[in-house]
Amino acid sequence: MPPRAPSHLPPSATAAAARNGAGPVPTRLQAWLARLPRSVRFVLTGGLNTGLTYGLYLVLLAPLGYRWAYGLAFVAGIALSYAMLRWLVFRAPGRRHAWALVAATQLGQFVVGLAVVELWVAVLGWPSSLAALASVAVCVPLTYAVHRWVFRAGVA
């Protein structure tokens, strides 16, 4: 008889873990995250992703220069984002080609964020020091909605 999942996990988390080959017993991190609302998991893993990719950027900066460092860190961030969205936030394999949809969403987020920053500073004349925060306020809910669609349970 296979081991049972801890009782604090919803049945969907156990089923999703079994479907993904992770087995019915989650890691401590997965168990802790399972107690949090999905939107909170999204924000926490996004912050972790940002911190890790920024660290990678800093490590690559001296040997490769800022362009290559940024490009490689951005690509690594997309891969890390996909992994965390699939296994920690939504705990589902997602739609067909979910990895490509996540990458396209990240690129779309960059374009929308840049448009918000441009509108904030050049059109509205508001302080550039707050432009990135405005971009986050617009982009985070949008990307959450798209990623929720990409990883909707029961869709392959």
UniProtKB/TrEMBL annotation:
Residues 10-22 have a biased composition (Low complexity). The keyword Transmembrane helix applies. Residues 41-150 form the GtrA/DPMS transmembrane domain. Keywords: Membrane, Transmembrane, Transmembrane helix. It is found in: Membrane. It is a multi-pass membrane protein. Pfam families: GtrA_DPMS_TM. It comes from the Bacteria. One of its GO terms (cellular component) is plasma membrane. Belongs to the GtrA family. This is GtrA/DPMS transmembrane domain-containing protein. It comes from Comamonas serinivorans.
